[in-house]
Amino acid sequence: MNELDAVAECLRSGWLTMGPRTQAFEQALAEFTGAPHAIAVSSGTAALQLACVALRLGPGDEVIVPAFTFSATAHAVRFAGATPVLCDVVSAQAPHIDPADVERRITPRTRAVIAVHVFGHPADLTPLRALCDAHGLALIEDAAQAFGAAVGTRGTLGCFSFGAGKQLSLGAGGLVTTADDELAARVRLLRSHAMTSGTWDRHRGHASSYDVVDIGFNFRLDEPRAALGLAKLPNVPQEVERRRAAARAARDALTDGTPMFSLDGASPAVAGVLYDTPREGRRYPALHELPAFADLAAPGSLPRAEDAARRHLALDVF
Amino acid sequence: MIPLFDLRLEEPDIEAVLDVLRSGELAMGARVAEFEAAFAAHLGARHAIALSSCTAALHLAYLAAGVGPGDEVIVPAMTFAATAAAVVYCGATPVFAEITGPHELALDPADVERRITERTKAVCTVHFAGYPATPLRELCDAHGLALIEDSAHAPLTGVSGLAAAYSFFSNKVLACGEGGLLATDDDAVAERVRELRGQYGYKLDEPRAALLLARLPRIHEDVARRRELTRAYRARLEGVTVPYDDAAVERSSCYVMPVLVEPERRDALREHLRERGVQTSILYPAIHEFTAYRERFGTPSLPRTEHVARAEITLPLFPHMTEAQLDQVVEGLR
To answer: B224: domain range?
Structure first.
């Protein structure tokens, strides 16, 4: 169904929260991503927050996070009450979390590692998975910029964003994927105030009251956005192809020898460009360059992340 | 089946959403800004900040009030879990206080006062079912406490404390699906909430703002109809306790229609109503009796709250409900 018709039909139905469209969207997302469980949520930030809380990360726990990422990655760790530990990236040209540096930062308090698929380019999870398995750590994939790439199924949990400008944009929205039945149940529970039954169950007469079994949140996606997502989802592969073409064109047009990220197998949300001198445009500072995270690392201590932050420019592709 | 609530959107409401989708600008913020200005004017508040939910609004209200680890926030237990959960998000402890009684389901100021300690940072009052709660501003001011209002049920009630949290959840008087808003007259609170909104992923998007903007002008008409139905219920119901009085109805947004029955008859009555095609609910099971709260905070004794939690039945109420439907509900309760 065309996306306008799908949303109009949903609005005319008068049922706007946690109903059949969200269920259908989640089923389609599970098929699309290849994840056994797909849980639609209110935002990419909410997906990361739920992942951290579902893993029962809390005070005293450490989570290793690359210093070159959007701030939500580290904020989500703090949301759960845990402490982000910043690590370096491989290089400015491949600004993904560096497994060797992750290993150096593992302590007895480390509980999880978050790998970020920066700009939509998949991080290499093979060494990270091995490292996490060897140390009994959870691996969270921050795939907020990478919907449409083959990601989100190798970590313990995958977190996607359907925010503005994303490959699948619903205005605001997100997704948690996992193969773990127990974690999936926990994410679902925490998404809606840890209530043992929801409005939809009660509407259909399946439950008359409820208990609240944990401190949960309102991180639900509503039905109009689920209807929109369901209608737009089949177009995502094409959308990703368009972005790849735009990124290739940007690479070709930039003839000053600027090194750029590899596009192999990737679905870039934006094309990352490196310059030798900083230029105007959308740029992500390294996390410890932000006041909120300045206490986590000294300037100069994460040189490759700092180099990437100084030299990159994020160009929109669509 | 007569449903508990039945949201009906008009074609112009739907068209407003489709216009946004056609524009492709789902999060640029023009309609969010327009809705915020319209809702601030509607409330007579200085600032209105649109958010992803009322839970988000409560969370940011507590944070803006400076609530943090070690602090206590006094809240009713006769409310939705979010009122207390958002206190826990801040690392603080919810302290449950009593409601006034079966005719007034909001916080009892005398009980609030008894529960104030040196750790109390704020009080959150709930305008239950849209009936403005007994004012607590003077008490809070006297003790140097922030007053937060959970106005999820009360979109006509303006701000009398530091901040008020509104809900646009699908069963509410003004609904868009998932949505909320924080209103305040305090410039510093507004600035802080706007900063934190992005950090927590609490933004409202353009389609939902467009829907709310389209529906806001009809809110008084909808509430007038809700009051009319509430008056009809009050006149016709027999053998049950109906909270509040006729005068209070005229100040209420009449979000839901609560009645109280003998606790031992409650489940059978609900089942009887269900068999007769009437959907009902319970607003609310008491928060302090939920597993999550008993485990963390013990079980204070709140007999008035517990009585209501066991005696309450919420009856269907929505603007296009007919007199015949209302009679069917009343008949089912006899």
So the answer is: 219-333
